[in-house]
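Hey, quick one: can you model this chain's 3D structure?
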Amino acid sequence: MAIQMPIRAAGSKDEVSDGPLASFATEGNAYAILVRGDTSSAQVERAVREAAAEAVKHLSRKLLN
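Sure thing. Here's the predicted structure for all 65 residues.
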């Protein structure tokens, strides 16, 4: 099964220091990876991969139940 996950900017530039660089977020049946900061940095790319792994865990549990 293939699922497309949107990647969205999270908050304003003033809020960049709040929270992780990337995180998996859900709202009802909508999902996204929220990114803070410069999306081209190696740290943010690593954080997006970690958030994607979290998304896979979450969606696998949801689909298997």
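One thing worth noting: Residues 1 and 16 are 33 Å apart (CA to CA).
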